[in-house]
Write a structure and sequence with these properties.
Blueprint (H helix, E strand, L loop, with lengths): L2 H10 L2 H10 L5 E2 H8 L3 H13 L3 E6 L2 E6 L1 H15 L2 H22 L4 H10 L4 H38 L11
Antiparallel strand pairs: 1-3, 2-3
Helix pairs in contact: 2-3, 2-4, 3-4, 5-8, 6-8, 7-8
């Protein structure tokens, strides 16, 4: 945290809350000490909270350069993102997103005369391009990858939509009894 925000950071959030906030922003495995430093807490507080988060499946423990480190649990992140999509959108909205994303993907394929991202990447490796064209194509790859990620999430959400909606809805009927 920046020094100017240090006071509000430490006054408005507990140490454990700050550790959780730092963990939510991780983009790679990070050592306990670095997490503690970013959260402005002791190493012991960070380690304790990280172990609790691991037991709750929010993070996974790993080793970086021989030092204990933690990273966000990718499975948990996937399920959270899919659940968020389902909670925020109707089935019709998700189907519309699927259509729009597929159209974006098809437009890229048509514009560059390829049928897939792999074919586009092969062009990059097999043909000679000027630096400006290479930069543009790297941007296209990043865009294409983002579309693929969103497509995957929307497809997962559609597959799980009924199950999640049913399990998330409050139960108003009487509990079933076993005979």
């Amino acid at each position: 945290m920046a020094d100017s925000n240090s006071a509000s950071w430490t006054e408005n959030m507990s140490g454990r809350e700050r550790v959780r906030h730092v963990v939510e922003l991780l983009d790679e495995p990070t050592s306990v000490q670095e997490i503690a430093d970013r959260a402005d807490v002791s190493r012991a507080t960070a380690d304790d909270e990280l172990q609790r988060l691991q037991s709750d499946d929010w993070v996974t423990e790993t080793t970086v350069d021989g030092t204990k480190a933690y990273d966000l649990n990718p499975v948990r992140m996937l399920f959270d993102e899919v659940t968020d999509l389902i909670e925020a959108h109707s089935r019709d909205e998700l189907e519309s997103q699927l259509t729009e994303l597929t159209e974006e993907q098809e437009e890229l394929a048509t514009e560059y005369g390829v049928s897939s991202l792999d074919e586009f990447r092969n062009q990059l490796a097999n043909e000679e391009f000027a630096a400006a064209e290479l930069r543009e194509r790297r941007n296209v790859i990043t865009t294409w990858e983002a579309i693929n990620t969103e497509l995957g999430l929307v497809k997962h959400a559609l597959h799980l939509y009924d199950d999640v909606a049913e399990l998330s809805s409050p139960r108003t009927d009487s509990p079933s009894t076993f005979a």
